Fold these 2 entries.
Entry 1:
Amino acid sequence: MTLTNKYNHTLTEKKWQDKWRETKLYHPDVSDASDKYYNLWMFPYPSAEGVHVGTIFSSTGGDVHGRFMRMQGKRVLQPMGYDSFGIHSENYALKIGEAPQVFVDRAIKNYERQFKQIGHGYDWDRAVATSEADYYKWTQWLFVQLFKAGLAYKKKAFVNWCPGCKTVLSDEQIVTPAQAGKFPPTYTSIEEVPEGTRVCERCGNIPKRRQLSQWFFRITDYADRLLGNLDKIDWTQKVKVAQKEWIGKAKGRLITFKKENGEELEVFTTRPDTLNSATFLVVADDELYNKHKQTYEKEGVATGEYAINSLNGRRLPIWKASYVAPGYGTGTVMGVPAYDERDYQFATKYHLDIVKEPLKDNGLGKEHVNYHLRDWLVSRQRYWGAPIPMIYCDVCAKKGNSYFDLQGETLQADHSDWEPAGWYPEENLPVVLPEIADYKPSGEGKGPLADHPEFYNVKCPHCGSDAIRETDVLDTFVDSSWYFLRYPSVDAVSANLMPFDKQITQDWLPVDLYFGGAEHSVLHLMYARFVTQALYDLKLGSFE
């Protein structure tokens, strides 16, 4: 049998795609939320010349679901956008020797052409790109809201520095080589990398610890809410377990040990019943911890000091050691080698006593809850990101009107009655990212904008004095922490001082289905939940 009529996909697909756009089939009127269905697919990073087949694969799954819901009579909102700020796009631009603005503009046009050619049912009238000023002005607005609420702050801290990406990383961006699909350049395969090694999720280099002054969001204030609300979300157990373990809520006791010189050390333990078997104390040491953070080698240094176990009077030598994280609990742990494997390895290596007494809780200490979760580090020492919308005014600082002096040091803890010298009222936004030629990161702990006085020398919006603008930019996960709020209101908020219309948001959100990868369980999915809850508390959102 001879087939005389072949299916001409080029003509037929284009014909119907044009028809869909003409009739606005995939552009629902958001003023009518009857039978609404918000079908959200994770938006892609434009980090190559074209769309990766894996991206098309996952987009197809979301599109099939959206079409099925339309067949059920639902009014489906299925938007599309681009996570175009951040290290993913910037690294590719650096690789091909092109300014990020030029590359991203070309990549987005090509991505859109390819997606339209595929014919997935996206509402292209609502497309957003996080690197466009009319989007990132609202990312900066979000920062300002969190700052005014006391949920954004700056401090000096030991941070994870990636020598490959030349910027800091949050704890959540440091993963196993298997999770990253990459390995450090000093090895030839993932299999060679020692067990326990952690790498940058983007480039595979082993992060180092450096002390820098950085911006943080107080996500730890929401640790219990983030845990409790998991019961209200219809998510897979894999994602929920990952978040629960990352938050790492641990109930225990704070126990005080008196040193022989009269000073006191406080220890957090989840096993107060092993107190009678403690034979030494370990104090966290930044230098040792930073040296062995990725190798997990247990190196120790004896301090020559002793503390007394009040339960049995035993003298406990005090050691500094690499296996205690400076930020965990009080920074001091009791060594119980008879009941703890890490303590056993350390005691064996340094010939410390191992005593196994019967387990017994004698009620010493006070109840305490500890968390593995740390505050979200949002500063980045790169170019391609939303500038952090803060300034440092020495005049306002001396008057007590600002959080910070010119060096960015915190002046006081209580700021409830102050008007910080920041970039608001919000109509001052956006702080526009300037186009510069020297956009490559230097690796010196500061971003490229720090080399541009025409950017950082400004007038204080409050007193008119000379001031300095922040030169770090925001982590790209801040951009993606709220994009789902923007989509429904793209064409409804141009005249408002809000990134989303309250009524539309109340009608169309929460999202009905999110189609995305579990690799972001403790990244995007955790951060989006935190921002949603914070906006709810600030009465800027209707759900948590």
Entry 2:
Amino acid sequence: MHTSILYKKHCFTILLVFSGLIAHAGTNLDSLRAVWNDESQDDLERIGAMRKLAWEGYLYTQPDSAFYYAGLEYEFAKSKGLKKHMAAALNTQGVSFAIRGDYANAIHYYMRSLKLKEEVGDKRSIANAFNNIALVYMEQGNHESAITYYKKGLVLYDEIDHKSGKSAALNNLGNAYVNMGNEASALECYLQSLALAETLEDTRGIAMASNNVGHIYKSKGDSATTAGNTKWATTQYHLANQFYANSLAISEETNDLHSISIAVIAIGNMHKTRGDSAQKAGNTALFRKHYNKAINQYSRALTIAQEISIVNEIRDAAKGLYSVQKALGNDVKALEMYELYIATKDSILSDENQQEVIRHKFQYEYDKQHLADSLAYAQQQELDHIEHQAELEQEAQQRYVLYGGIGVLLLLGGMIFIGYQRKRKDNEIIGAQKREVELQKELVEEKNNEILDSITYAKRIQEAILPPTRLVKAWLPNSFILYKPKDIVAGDFYWMEQVDDTTIFAAADCTGHGVPGAMVSVVCHNAMNRAVREFGLRDPGSILDKTRTLVVEQFEKSDEQVSDGMDIALCTLKGHTLQYAGAYNPLWLARAQGSAPQELIEIKADKQPIGKVEAPQPFTTHTIELQEGDTIYIFSDGYVDQFGGEKGKKFKIAALRNLLLSIQEKELMIQRTIIDQTFENWRGDLEQVDDVCIIGVKV
């Protein structure tokens, strides 16, 4: 019964230790938000403010809100390439799920955090992640997996010599062994944890480990030893000695060999600790010439050492007393201690001499065997010499035959030499050609690098025209955007504007991808900005009509025939009123039908692009009154056109519908993660065929 209580008592406390963050009461959340929203602040200051906001403001009261703020921290750190802080944000999200009891998602985010920490190479953070994962497995009852991850963490704590982390991990590992019924292994872990905590003078760690040791002993009926451990941990040595003595007496009466050994070891360790302490105190007093105090401490150390027969400690205590008495001029007492010192020293030397005799014996046996091996070697050498002489005689008989062949070999050698000279000239020609090819290759690589640098810079320009995450979350708080360019730059883009109390947003797919698609996207993006900002249009159909006019006018300025354009889904949201217009790209509305399961309602787009077409028609504006809990999705065709799966086929529109219906109960950020992972799992090792852009908004 005590095992489950033992684990529950310490599990979550240790989880907070490993996260490295401790909540403080009275945190000023408004000041933290001010730091986060101030773009002039240092990036790390902003990240730190967001992390404190998640942990200290919401984690224990509103863990779902903590998940959201940690998501903002992750996206910002990702945009800055700060993997360490991305990992910390994922860890916060994992903790938020662990608090809510959603262990599957907790493991998912911990694993993502662990992967980033391994890329950074921060061993301490990796070890902490192992422990967090193990704690969740403990909560799930998967003790074998928990033990595996605790041991991984212990290996890293040893490598970086992080004693406090190792002590906590050992204590947790002991809990896992207890829950599996392996009390022997649990006791070993608790005792190691206790020893480390004592070394660090960690009173809390000492209390936790001592308490767990006590539970083990109590389960075995050894309450006296448990009490002794408690008194020893609080330096009440006299009482501890009484408890240990009682435990030893009881164990001897019942002939319990295991408990006898535990009590004896405990008594020995206690006495040795006290003796070491007295010896050190004596040395300090002697150095300061506090002779009376030195005599008291050395005498105490000598008594303890003689009680448990530790010869080295007897020798050191006797030597200390000899030095004090000599300094005081007490020659008789000094001589007595000197004789004791010499006697114990000779005893130690006697043991060492015995070991030396054994060593000489082994050396003698080795030398004898070596001599035997040498004789055998000499005999083998003689046999080899005889065989060699026979071989020489046989070679003499064959020599005449070989002389005849030499002439033939010389003739062949001349022919080979002529061929070699010809081959060398050919190689020189080939070498020159190879050097020319390598030179051309270097030139091509240099040009490629220049082109790549230009495209990378173009990516920065394209990213600059996309709405930043802070504006997306401010204008559409409950939303997600999944944006996955196929190449460095993309033809897909997402667009957003806020006019008074109306939010306008779109998912666009321009002709092509890569550099050509990106160039078209810049033209189309500029046209949409003009339609809204310059011409003041708010109706989605009218915005698309004007955007088409501006794009066609721009392309008609060229002497070449340009038929490029874009497909798009454009929405305006004011309160619960949604207006939509689309060029090829539809809008999906997920709505619950009473007690019936949710369904996806499709609002169809006009079958015409934003570009030059014959007989263009005005775009249709659809108006929809949204209900509480409705979720809308707009997207490009890159997701459904992706090849993959076992047969290498397209994902298709029906599969995307089924996927979205299956995750309606999930939070939007979790939906985004599932949609992204499904895409990557489907794609596998195949190349991404097109840009991907999906926007989800929930009322």
